[in-house]
Design brief:
Length: 417
């Protein structure tokens, strides 16, 4: 368990307000809504083809190399979603843009686009995530409310998942100070429905609703852990108030630790099963919290450090980009020239001159044999197979589009049966 937290992410967008054009936003939405294209695959497709428009055109042929046909989202479909979101009073925010939460840019598999309803400015403020049991006790809810209110008074926005119990209590108490609700489904698919009045009050109070899922998407059980990575990813620290041993809130805590964020837990009675998860987190090294000051003591010093971009973040992408480990903000900033526009006019990068030719069947088989159900670092695959790094990246992209591999934190992949 991570006791501390990483330095605040350097946000290059704060040096220049670089917005996507309408055509770029449309192409990005088409690409991320295409079959088998998630945030990591989106990044690799841009890396491979050089632009979202080129990736859309080349996607069917690339997927066919692994014997799979994929559905590419149509332009009309993307236009319709943009119009529907606008009718809800919402908008799409890209990872390249100032309005995108700075801390979220730094996580593995940061969504290239998020849909937003509410006040954009609230996303630029420092955040703390508060999560916990759905079947929370009265005392647990009161503690969550007190902590959320005090952290709000200290200038923090409270981010949570709008679930029953602790989530709802934290949102309710944070209305005055600012709060963000992250949806597991589309922004037009509130869950649970009983929190509709609270969701409306969040918007009325100047807060926001955020999701990476398409409009109309009904949340499934598998979508909640995906939602949880955004809850923890938007915040410098995650605080748990009541969580059973097998609680979904523990997933959020684990994700926060993997993201290098501070993890906090409120202790509870050993006789209450709703405190078993939080007590275990404290044993594993999470910060024990009884008041807001315990959180502020950890996160305030790191938030005081300046958000200063490294000197190469606004430089044009170089030929070695395909060999680098991914940094969400740096990658998407590096895809643009310093003036925010590429030579192609779209704003995405040119394809790498070292892009590999189509791999041979022998090379495909060598990589597949090296993969297995245990997550393996991509660098280890490159060393083991003795294949060029760019070739391995291209083969993994093919397998990803064919639905044959799964991505994990730490640049690891595993083979799906």
């Amino acid at each position: 368990m991570v006791r501390g937290a990483s330095d605040p992410p350097r946000d290059a967008s704060r040096t220049d307000d670089e917005c996507l054009t309408d055509e770029q936003r449309l192409a990005w939405l088409q690409l991320i809504r295409s079959e088998n294209v998630g945030p990591v695959t989106f990044r690799e497709l841009i890396r491979h083809f050089g632009s979202a428009e080129a990736a859309i055109e080349g996607l069917p042929e690339l997927a066919a190399r692994s014997g799979r046909r994929v559905r590419v989202a149509g332009r009309a479909e993307a236009e319709r979603e943009i119009e529907q979101l606008a009718r809800l009073g919402g908008q799409f925010v890209a990872i390249r843009e100032r309005s995108y939460p700075a801390w979220l840019k730094a996580i593995d598999a940061a969504p290239p686009l998020i849909s937003l309803r509410g006040t954009v400015d609230v996303l630029a403020r420092p955040m703390i995530a508060i999560v916990g049991a759905r079947s929370a006790s009265v005392v647990g809810c009161r503690l969550a409310q007190r902590l959320a209110r005090d952290l709000g008074d200290a200038g923090f926005v409270i981010v949570s998942g709008l679930a029953r119990g602790i989530d709802a209590a934290a949102h309710q108490a944070a209305l005055a100070g600012g709060t963000v609700a992250v949806f597991a489904g589309g922004l037009d698919r509130l869950y649970p429905p009983e929190n509709a009045a609270l969701a409306a009050r969040i918007l009325e109070a100047g807060g926001a609703h955020v999701s990476e899922m398409p409009l109309g998407w009904e949340p499934r059980s598998r979508d909640f852990p995906r939602r949880n990575r955004l809850v923890s990813g938007m915040a410098s620290g995650t605080l748990l108030v009541e969580a059973a041993q097998r609680s979904g809130s523990l997933i959020t805590a684990r994700l926060a630790g993997e993201q290098g964020r501070a993890v906090f837990a409120v202790p509870g009675s050993p006789l209450d099963p709703r405190a078993a998860g939080t007590n275990q987190l404290i044993k594993q090294g999470a910060h024990l919290v009884t008041e807001a000051g315990d959180v502020l003591e950890i996160v305030a010093p790191m938030l005081g450090r300046a958000f200063a971009p490294p000197p190469d973040w606004l430089a044009a992408r170089d030929d070695g980009m395909a060999e680098r480990a991914f940094d969400g903000a740096a990658f998407f900033t590096g895809m643009f020239d310093a003036d925010g526009a590429s030579g192609s006019g779209e704003g995405d990068s040119e394809p790498s001159a070292s892009a590999p030719s189509e791999p041979t069947q022998s090379e495909r088989e060598r990589l597949i044999e090296a993969l297995g159900p245990v997550p393996t670092e991509i660098d280890a695959l490159i060393r083991f197979t003795n294949l060029p790094a760019a070739l391995v990246q291209g083969l993994l992209l093919e397998l990803d589009l064919a639905g044959r591999i799964e991505h994990h934190a730490g640049q690891r992949v595993s083979l799906l049966e």
